[in-house]
## 1
Amino acid sequence: MNKLKFLAAFALIFTAFNFSSCDNEPLDSAIDPNPQPSGCVAPTSFQASNFIGTNVNLSWAASTGATSWEVQYGPTGFAIGSGTSVFSETTNVTIPGLVTTNTYHFYVRSNCSESEVSSWIGPISVGTSTGGNTSGDYWPTAINNQWTYSMNGTTNPPLKMIGTANFGGRTYYKFSPQSGSGGSSGATGVTTWLNKNNGVYNLKTDDMTINAGGMTGTQTGFEYIILKDNIAVNATWTGTYSQTTSLTGLPGMVQTVNYVGKILEKDATATVNGQNFTNVIKVSIRREISILGMITIADEEYWFSKNVGVIKSILSNEGETFESILVNYTVN
């Protein structure tokens, strides 16, 4: 159980080591409300992202044998079979026409043939928000922009933007691969991407290879919203994503992270590493991490300075605190 607890915090700790190329959190397996035995395998890594206005983007990882997928959604707590179904032949879909004041549950399953489907995975919960127009650029995106952070007194390699790619019709900026280690944990070549869309900042992390407490394996990537600069102080956003952790000698674990982001301050000032920053937005993110019935809470705070990027972050998890501060930066 101690090793499971360690795994639940692994990615969070990795984030602290490399500032915020994302946090690689584990979490509880999604529960199928309508299980049905089948040789058709359910998809994994189901997540929602970029929920702006009345739309939300959903994505998942394909399983062997699947030829298409069915997404079903409805108001929070709806019964499978009573929701709205959307069919897709790709592993992502955009759901339009949501009501901005409502919260929704989403499920997905694989279709392997006309007569064979997998069990459902989900739900993931999404609350939409209309927001407003962006209030500035709080994480400048350009090739060769870079930021160097010190975590608990140890300076890490620069976090540098080295390229771009298109995912789901959106442009993401790629950060240089990062590596982290802490005690007996480590991850190598972790790649993170940043997308901005009218004041909404999404961080996407690719699959990674991990060494957690002496156990080696892989963990699938995820995406979440780290900032909305277009909403007011005390406004919040919510999201859910799932991951699959596969460790040598152990069965794969599907995990789900529920998070809530909140704007704590806007137009603030902050002094970091002896330098004064203005036009600062302070954000909190609380993640509920569950694995095999065990719940872990991780609290994060981020300070974003206009036309600079993240100048400070604090992660608190299981009695440990990791503070990253900006040492130097170059933006174009």
## 2
Amino acid sequence: MYPWLSAPFLQLQALVRSGQLGHALLLKGGEGMGKGELAKELSRALLCQHTDVAPCEHCHACRLHAAGSHPDLHVIGGEERSIGIDAIRGLGQVLAESARLGHGKVAVIIGAERMTEAAANALLKTLEEPAGEATLVLTSSRPERLLPTIRSRCQQWLLPLPAPAMVLDWLAGEGLAGSQAALNLNQGSPLHTRDYLARGEDRQRQQLLEQFVALAGQPGPGIAALQSALLERPARLHWLHLLLQDALQLALEVQAPLRLDDAEPLSRRLSRLGPAALDTTLAALVELRHTLQPAAGRPLNAGLQLGLWLGRWTRPAVAYHQTTHSGDGFAG
């Protein structure tokens, strides 16, 4: 189990052992927290045949759970983009049946916010008329998208982001060199940060940010390579967003930690463009990112829109060079 889940699991385990756990729970928290892992461990405790020491890890139920073949554990959600009414209806029918091993049943819905409206209404009926010894465990990174009536019928458990030091220690144990900047880029999510580092994206980020800053003072052929890298993965625009925010913070002389502290030299160079130019660029970037989001629909020509934004990005630097001496640190 991930180290930041140990404390909430111990609390839930105590409720299982004392028989005080409700029939429906909602585990909520940011993406990449391991909520599914916590739900799995909780289901193991709920299905253990020795409740007072659950999970004992030795009984028949625990062995079946470890093998992934417990007949009274039902999990839906997975990688599906949405959870339909058929899946929820089927789950309700299964929960209405007697437990195969006679020690209750557990249903886990991963990413419950992905339920369709019809599926959510079907689940609400199950929550209003719970089966005998059945326990429902929902996980969600967007609990606000769930029906208020569903949330109100669940015991809600918020999983806060773990302390950066804990995550960095865990990453080191995984053989990955993490940093506060990498955590900030991934909104503090431990698992997203792990995946980001494992893909080697931290090195790519440094290169991309350097290309971006170089273009501010010397527009040229490099814009094509940068545009290609951003178009390949529009999420990388977030890297530029944080860099520009840091530059604006420095330009305004705001005393606060930088989001990308490992790119401070680059932020300081950009800060010389001044607050007005940086604010304008940031506003245009926010609009561009919204346009490129999958939920907004694929724009007719994403490459053109990205290219226009990058083209405009060169203008503040040109104006800067026209009003300052050549030793400004942007050229070359």
## 3
Amino acid sequence: MPGSSTARALAAASLAVLLGLVAGCGSGGGGGDAEASGARTITTDRGPLEVPSAPQRVVNLNGGLASYLYALDVPPVATDTRVLGVTNFDGGFPPAWADRAREAGTEQLPAGDSLSIEAVAAAQPDLIIGGGQGITAVQAMQAYDQLAAIAPTVLVPRTLTGWQDQLDAVADAVNKADAVPALLDQYQAKLDEVKGQVTPPAGETVYIGSFASEKLYLIPSTAALPALGQDLGVTPSDVVAKVPDARLASTGDSMEVSPELLSEVANAPNAIVVDSGGRSLEELKQDPNFAQLPAFRSGNVWELPATSYRPDFDGVLSTLDEFGQIFPRQGG
């Protein structure tokens, strides 16, 4: 339609103007700030990359990475807000860091099936951070060249599923590695506190991912949540070892299993269901595929919220509290 062609032409012209403005900032605006504070070269999956030594206008493309920026005291000027099972296309900051986002004046990036390059450019970033897991990571990868034309762009590898590794990657990008030890100390103190308040269940625990899908998913023992539980003494079941030719998701933190194999693989005496936008524990109890499992038959099954599945720094602290509530200390 002629109207559509005209609209596309105007959108392209608008983007060109925005990119032109940002390029201008590179020599006198945001870029000038970077030059004034110096630049440094970091190593990324795409090779060496020069980034500001003290970035002032960070745009974050993955809601799952925002918590690290606030914890490192580098609040983004604009951020994606989507966190699996917590927020989606409706917008709104996730509760864990909503107050800090509002206090910092962080703007929300539009959430959609594709990344808004125009919105990123309009924020006039001197550094862009993306990657990690989820659809937003895919969007950033697909738009990398466009993003890199706006500002230095760091994509956290999707293979980094542990929160400590993600924290290190983000801290390296914003030159805040010296702030990491204090955050790790904060985690260790919380871990020690909760350890003294729990009695882990006897035997292994299988982790079940409940997503907005009809398929059945288990969470490998090497993923972030089971690893966190293991820090508390909750022994994860190695579900991958029980499946011949197991095929994990590209992020490595979920594994699809057929209904026929579920009873053979998820046969641990305990189970934890992570509701990430799928069916609740009570709903799964009505499903014959799950009702037959040993943990469900014995009642040794518990539920954790979506924030525990791929926990960021805030999520890992709150998940420790969740473990404390479902496994309270028994006896003396």
## 4
Amino acid sequence: MKDRGQNKQKNQLLDPVLTTKFSNLGFQQLTEIQKKAVPTILQKKDSLIIAPTGSGKTECSVIPIFSLVKQSKKIGKIKVLYITPLRALNRDVFRRITRYAENDGLTIQIRHGDTSQLDRRKITRDPPDVLITTPETLVILLTQKKILDALSELEWVIIDEVHELLPSERGSQLSLSLERLQLTTNTEITRVGLSATIGNEDEAAKFVVGTKRKCKIIQDTSVRKYDVDVKYVDGTISDVADSIIDYVKKLNLNSPILLFTNTRGESEFLASILKEKSDINIELHHGSLSKQVREETETLLREGIPGIVVCTSSLELGLDIGSVELVIHYGSPRQVSK
């Protein structure tokens, strides 16, 4: 089911035209995972790409895919489906890859729970070449006749943050949707999975492509080092807040700090206490907040405004949030991959 062949990939030379394209887009030197993955993607092989956050996974998939779709695009047909687990990640991916799509003359849109009715009608009336969505929204799209027609010549599916979907009902739902997609299209769909953390690579590969298809597992073997410290606070959540404030002030960092909690309730309670006890800028981010509030917080992070952002998993999955020197987790993470 799997096919590694990593050493052979590493020695393959990229197409000079594509190398020039990466360079023109600002990538003067390709990362290890980009050198390994791009030749495989150009061959339209199903693949699972595993590499740390910030190593260029997104670019190593979309740039070669867009260069191929440029030759086969057709008015009214969606050629690439990009699936992420979170709306925040949808927006972040859209912001990052729009220029790559436009560079190849492709149109791109987002369709998820925050999408306005006006934009939904626009997507139905004039389908883009590339559509970014979530697993839940994909289920809805597969019930709409006009969208099914737009997806009838779909060529590529990119699944981002695969590890987040693996052990869940959402993952099972997505697997069914992908098989439905293949049954309703006139072309063979190439699937590409992206993830920074994978426990069982073989199971993850099966999740991406199914049990009867081959999947090339491409992995970045470089190692990143982190300073990890565990602190125990014997007291209430108010005492925890005091400890966090003292720790942050002692470090005196000039960049945003992410403070993760396991639940939305914890994040709101801890944020309110921190605001009462400190003059540090405190922001809040979780899935139940309005689109405007979430986007404003994400912008502050990208701009590098100092302060603490108290958040749930809504900010943990590969978002481009600029330079962050400190990440704090309140309580024990519920999964090893967290």
